[in-house]
Amino acid sequence: MLFIRRKLLGKDFRQAHTAAFACLTIIWIGYYMVTDPGVDVTNLVFWPAAYFLALWLIGFSIPRFFLKLLSQKFHVKVIYHLGIAVLFGIIHMILTDVFIVLIERFLNLPEHFILGNLPTKWLFSWHQLFHGFIWYIIYIGTLNMFYFQALYLAEEAKNHNLSASLSDARVKTLSTELNPHFLFNAMNSIVMQVRKNENSLAVEGLADLGDMLRAVLTTRDEIFISLKKEIELLNHYISLEKKRFGEKINIEIDCHPKILHYSVPKLLLQPIVENAFKHGINLNNATSDLSVQIVEKESFINIQVFNSSNEKIKWPSGVGKSVGLPNTVERLRRLYGADYVFQIKQSEAGVLIDITLPKRT
User: How many Å apart are CA 231 and CA 237, to the nearest integer?
Assistant: First the structure.
């Protein structure tokens, strides 16, 4: 869905839309000039120049209506699209005549009619709105064909990738689930607390570590878990890290309860937050801020993890390097194909990791 949205609202679509109507205009002009060499060129302003210019201009709005109604029930979509098609036809009829007058005046051509007479013309030629009506229906039909074809290809590619590399995906998932570096830090922190006779903190740390390991092991065969479980896992991890850093960090997790039932890849957040500790908080002697914000946007879930660090993230490469972020992106690619967004935005304020995923229940 996200891939479709980017395609229909992006630069490529606008260019294809413009090229298509430019070709239609040229083809019709060429047809008239070939079939009727004595045709008055000034009449071509009426048809097809102004006609297709109006279609081209208002055609940019059609993908937005298509995407807006995509999640509606079939009968609701039909009713809305028929109503929009009528409105589209009226606007196309009006714009076509207005463009004819403006173009003819601009080029000093003989005028077919004047602006003041247009309302009377529309009253007696209202049937012309069916032109735009039919074009709208054709356009929506074409977009539906494109949409279902894209869904089919994306699903086919996803199933192929998942089945062909299931064992590889499981290995990569396990490598991100239990990062040895994280386990070493957690156990080392607990050992230090025992040596300092901070036994209560050590017991709490062992309890958090045990809870996290138990939660991971009980869901070892699950690729997706609910946001509620994912946040619980993250809280166990954060609790361990807070015992290491104390008051050095302010942490905030914001997720509305109504979206906790949606599913995300298991242990999606932990490697990202661990990366924030490793590249930001651990290197910053001042108090740092770490926030995790999860919101619902139409048919997507948006996750933003921010830490107030100026440390630039360098993508690891080579044997023995960190695997957290690369494996996270690889898992998302395998699970969602092209239907996700993963961005790292770095500024003076800090580092923001922005992830957008389709809703999954």
Answer: 10
92 Cβ contact partners less than 8 Å away, ≥ 6 residues apart: 54, 55, 58, 129, 131, 132, 135
Of 313, 304, 247, the closest CA to residue 280 belongs to: 313
**DSSP code of residue 70:** T
Which neighbouring-strand residues pair with 354? 304, 343
Which of helix, strand or coil describes residue 354?
Answer: strand
Q: b/e string for 329-354 if b means 16 or more Cβ within 10 A?
A: ebbbebbbbebbbbeeeeeeebbbbe
* Whole-structure pTM value: 0.55
Grouping H, G, I as helix, E, B as strand and the rest as coil, residue 288 is strand
Give the C-alpha separation, 334 to 169, whole Å: 8
Q: Phi-psi category of 197—alpha, beta or left, where left has phi over 0 and alpha has psi -120 to 50? A: left
**pLDDT (tens digit, 0 to 9) for every residue of the chain, 361 residues total?**
565 666 666 677 778 878 888 888 888 778 777 877 766 666 666 667 788 888 888 888 888 888 888 878 888 888 998 999 999 999 988 888 888 888 877 777 777 677 777 777 777 777 778 888 998 998 888 888 888 887 788 777 777 766 656 645 554 554 455 556 667 777 887 888 888 888 888 888 888 888 877 877 777 667 789 999 999 888 888 888 887 777 778 889 999 999 999 999 888 898 888 888 776 665 556 677 889 999 998 889 999 999 887 666 655 544 344 556 787 888 888 788 888 999 998 888 888 999 999 998 8
Whether the bond into 48 is cis, omega within 30 of 0: yes
249 backbone φψ class: left, alpha, beta (φ>0; ψ -120 to 50) = beta
Instruction: Tell me the C-alpha distance between 158 and 237, whole Å.
Output: 31
Distance separating alpha carbons of residues 352 and 276, to the nearest angstrom: 9
In terms of residues, how long is the chain?
361
Q: Which of 59, 40, 167 is nearest to 110 (CA)?
A: 40
3-state secondary structure of 220: coil
